[in-house]
Amino acid sequence: MMRPATRARAAAAVLALAVSACASPSSAPSTDAPTPAEDERRLPGSTSNDIRVTLVQLNDVYEITPVSGGAQGGLARVATLLQRLEAWNPNTLAVIAGDFLSPSALGTARIDGERLAGRQMVAVLNAMGLDYATFGNHEFDLDAEDFRRRLDEAEFGWFTSNVLDGAGRPLQGVSGVEVLRFIGAAGDTLRLGMIGVTRAGGEPDYVSVSDPIDAVRDEVDALGDSVQALVALTHLDFAEDTELAQTVPELDLIMGGHDHENMVLRRGPRLIPITKADANARSVFVHEIRWDPRVQQLDIESRFVPITDETTDEPETAAEAARWVDIAYAGFRAQGFEPDEVVTDVTEPLDGLEASVRTRPTMLTELIAEGMLAEVEGADLSILNGGSIRIDDVIPPGPMTQYDVIRALPFGGEVVEVLMGGALLNEVLRQGIDNQGTGGYLHTAGVDWTVIGAPFEVAGAPIDPDATYRVAITDFLITGRETGLGYLTPDHPQLEVVGSHRDVRQALIDALRRRFGGGG
Predict the structure, then answer these.
(1) Which residue from 87, 127, 469, 495 could staple onto 22, CB 3.0 to 4.6 Å apart?
(2) Is 60 exceeded by the pLDDT of residue 452?
(3) Which secondary structure element, helix H or strand E, spans residue 374, and what is its range?
(4) φ, ψ for residue 186 (rounded to 5)?
């Protein structure tokens, strides 16, 4: 496939914008067109022969309101940025590279017996002016009915090239490749192709996910020379995005997700830019695509833009976010929580960042494990998986509320008391270390070891393979669904379930008060 000359630049400086509320965000293009969908946009008032398109990239957003104590993130702030960019260039599109329907603390609230399950995310993204989304692996945390409802509620377009329904058919209302046609002042045209893909593995029966690299390769071959710019919106890990850049060098830009920390790197024979923003809208990438039809030249400049409290809220998006916070809080109160209640005043930061809790103990993980240990009278140790901690944030010193606890452990679940044979316990703990860097990395209380590979010790003595230990464990870990722990179920001959105790979040609240004192 012949591609026009491309020059891509990643700006080192942060994009400086005087963000203020301007015109309302444009509505999303129609998604009723056949696959590939094609949308025409005409740029009014241009005095240049260049055709310019601005793409605003988000990924992995679980919170509709600011994080980091209000200092970062917030979709109402992103809406303000979008309005400013749209006033400068009407050809501005906001896209998200997956993982926003789940996991979310607010999404776990139950209203009339049903979890919100991403309703609040779709509603606020609608208000913000999102244009397009592709799927992340966590979209499939929802059951089939909720998943379908969220697709239908969206006022933005969904597109994917490797996600089908469980029978291998296209998902209703979801496009394949999006081909957008932009017409300049002189009547010249830029056709921009956008391909969306999601990492495969672990999906439920109601969807099927094919190899993402093969899917992009097939779409690029099918498009041929019909587009002047070609971008991929991906929910892949960095290694997979790198493979994509190596395998499909015709791409001009890869806007990625899944990895929660910002990055901009070049990979592949054409040094294709791969960009990922910070999770929870702590930042976005702004990509300016410029097409000069006279010389068939494509330029892409990518800029990293932090979203901070220096940006004001767009009022309508802020109001929609506040409405859903109120709805969710009512649901939490019905479950026995008081979200606004101060649990304690923490005196040092509690690190719940994904990069931390999946690789090493932090004070937050220690407090959760200690709370579980205290929950089961006579327990020798406690075990939980890092993947159960979803806050991906650092709770700053100061008042910590019950909602912060819910954010840390949105899935909750009972603390389960089990009797576990020493041989099985050793095997589980070793697997927990092997799972470092994933959600299956295990945190414990009551277990010691000096170096990796040394014997695990409980109560000051090496674990006896022939002894039985009383363990406080999360209910999820004995389902057999954690990485490398498929054998850890109640059917295992060395595992006996004794009983269930309170929700792990209640155990954490007690641990916080023991450590830092009562709330207020």
Answers:
(1) 87
(2) yes
(3) helix 363-375
(4) -90, 5
Give 6's strand partners: 298
Asked if residues 56 and 25 have their Cβ atoms less than 8 Å apart, the reply is no
Q: Which residue has the higher pLDDT, 373 or 11?
A: 373
Do 235 and 346 belong together in one domain? no
pLDDT reading at 309 higher than 80: yes
Do residues 50 and 89 lie in contact, with contact meaning Cβ atoms separated by under 8 Å?
A: no
Residue with tokens 């509709």: 64
Q: What is the CA radius of gyration of the chain?
A: 24
3-state secondary structure of 471: strand
Number of domains in the chain: 2
Q: Is residue 326 part of a domain?
A: no
State the chain's mean pLDDT as an integer: 90
Distance separating alpha carbons of residues 60 and 97, to the nearest angstrom:
7
| 283 in Cβ contact with 15 (< 8 Å) | no
In the block, which residue shows the tokens 């006022």? 155
φ, ψ (nearest 5 deg) of residue 252: -100, -20
Beta strand 495-503 with 414-421: parallel, antiparallel or unpaired?
antiparallel
The widest CA-to-CA distance across the chain, in whole angstroms, is 82
Indicate if 89 and 39 belong to the same structural domain.
yes
Cis before 36? omega within 30: yes
Residues 189 and 71 in one domain: yes
Q: CATH number of the domain that 150 lies in?
A: 3.60.21.10
Spatial distance between the Cα atoms of 183 and 48, rounded to a whole number of angstroms = 12
Q: What DSSP element (H or E) covers 370? A: helix 363-375
Under 8 Å between Cβ of 276 and 257: yes
Q: Three-state SS for 145?
A: helix
> Distance between the two ends of the chain, CA-based, in angstroms?
65
Are 375 and 453 in contact by the 8 Å Cβ rule? The answer is no
Q: Is the pLDDT of residue 201 over 90?
A: no
| C-alpha–C-alpha distance, residues 515 and 151, integer Å | 44
> What type of residue sits at position 502?
R
In a shared domain, residues 266 and 358: no
Winning range, highest mean pLDDT, from 101-105, 130-134, 395-399: 130-134
Extract the tokens encoding 48: 């240049």
CB neighbour class for 305 (10 Å; exposed up to 12, middle 13-18, buried from 19): buried
Rounded distance between C-alpha atoms, residue 212 and residue 191, angstroms: 23
For the beta carbon of residue 430, count every other beta carbon within 10 angstroms.
15
CA dihedral 424, 141, 55, 186 (to 10 degrees): 140
Closest Cα partner for 126 from 319, 327, 286, 328?
Answer: 319
φ, ψ for residue 82, nearest 5 deg: -60, -45
Residue 489, token pair as written in the block: 């179920």
Residues sharing a CB contact under 8 Å with residue 143, sequence separation 6 or more, in sequence order: 117, 204
